[in-house]
Amino acid sequence: PGDEIRHIDWKVVGKTDKYHIKQFEQSTNLKCHILLDASGSMGYKSQASGDKMDYARTLVSALSYLLLKQFDAVGLIAFNDQVISRIPPRSKPSHLQHILQCVAALEPQGITLIGKVITDTAPTLPGRGMLIIVSDLFTDEESIIKSLKLLHARGMELILFHILHPDEMTLPFEGDILFESLEDDPSITLDPVEIRETYQNLVRERIEFFRKHCAAIGIDYMFLETNNPLEQALTYYLLKRKSLYKK
Hints:
CATH class: Alpha Beta
Distance between the termini: 39 Å
Number of helices: 8
Strand order of the largest sheet: 5-4-1-6-7-10
């Protein structure tokens, strides 16, 4: 009851006179895990340029929808310095609701240890498939690259979405300001004017570090600010997914 007629295996019916519902998989059957950073720094927001966590939530939700529309299996791993919640990959359309409920319930907190999380979860990930990481990457750069190298060597297709708020790019504030860490760094009072140029250079160097090292390994890297249209990221993913069909 409730099964569609088109799923009935008529060959079995002819032999046994019993209705048998086919168990089938779509030919695409890509298995994708999405790693979503839910650490404290992802909670940064402003009225002018939006909420970093909401931007990441929307991106993950849209990617999950696209994966399921292509009959691919998608799972979610939310983390900070450890796995917070995990949803195994499924390809049923109804699976989207589980992912949406999970990302909606996430509250950014704790520190970020992406390298550790990837290392800890690697044994449970398939040898092949796709891994999409959505994070601000506020953690040790070398540990991230090292862990990504290991996954890439196993044959996984990797996409890294690096998300920052525009304020984190430019440090647009004026006057003596108390900066309070969203993770575990101590608070500090300073005038942004005195460090703005140096700060901006460091941020650009960090972005270039990830871009350069990901390219060298063969990992797809995309940098996004929260005021960038999400269509950019989704188009990037669709082009990547299309290229996998040709392999």
